[in-house]
């Protein structure tokens, strides 16, 4: 009961954070139009970073056994966001004003509002069929789109990492090589898209497990 209450509070905090971000983005766009897109990171970036840092706890939840999700897919999804948000976007002010950041945040928060709503209700034993269907179906088209957005965010950041030398390291003597960070990001792009296929397979597997056979959990609607 204690662990279930803790997980409910965790999901509630994440739901509140992502709902605030999602609502803020919509209201700002309806008020200021396209002008709001370039200012997305400065308006909601702090709350977004807090939510993503908090999501690292989900890896711990799986490791200690209070969450039965598969570790590797969840680990990949969380680390992808951490790397793109903190390493790529947060470190380059020029990237923060790009429209792709708004697109990326919109996709992330749309997915998370649905996911944490479903999780909260599931902690209390409530399963609504439309919400269950949405939770396990929406991620299948939106996750690949978010990966494309991540890849594009990395791509547009490369010239700035080249110009400013951010995170690039030249090792002192006796070492004779340096770490050129844009090359690291280009290699990570390959990892990002390779991991996408693995995670998509896991998403289909989860959807089949929850929706494929008229799961009894979906009685309440």
Automatic annotation (TrEMBL):
What keywords are annotated for this sequence in UniProt? Endoplasmic reticulum, Fatty acid biosynthesis, Fatty acid metabolism, Lipid biosynthesis, Lipid metabolism, Lyase, Membrane, Transmembrane, Transmembrane helix
Give this protein's Gene Ontology molecular function annotations: very-long-chain (3R)-3-hydroxyacyl-CoA dehydratase activity
Topology in the lipid bilayer is annotated as:
Multi-pass membrane protein
Asked whether the keyword Endoplasmic reticulum is assigned, the reply is yes
Taxonomically, which superkingdom?
A: Eukaryota
The keyword Oxidoreductase belongs to this UniProt entry's keyword annotation: no
The record, for Pfam families, names: PTPLA
Q: What's its job?
A: Catalyzes the third of the four reactions of the long-chain fatty acids elongation cycle. This endoplasmic reticulum-bound enzymatic process, allows the addition of two carbons to the chain of long- and very long-chain fatty acids/VLCFAs per cycle. This enzyme catalyzes the dehydration of the 3-hydroxyacyl-CoA intermediate into trans-2,3-enoyl-CoA, within each cycle of fatty acid elongation. Thereby, it participates to the production of VLCFAs of different chain lengths that are involved in multiple biological processes as precursors of membrane lipids and lipid mediators.
Question: Which protein are we looking at?
Answer: Very-long-chain (3R)-3-hydroxyacyl-CoA dehydratase
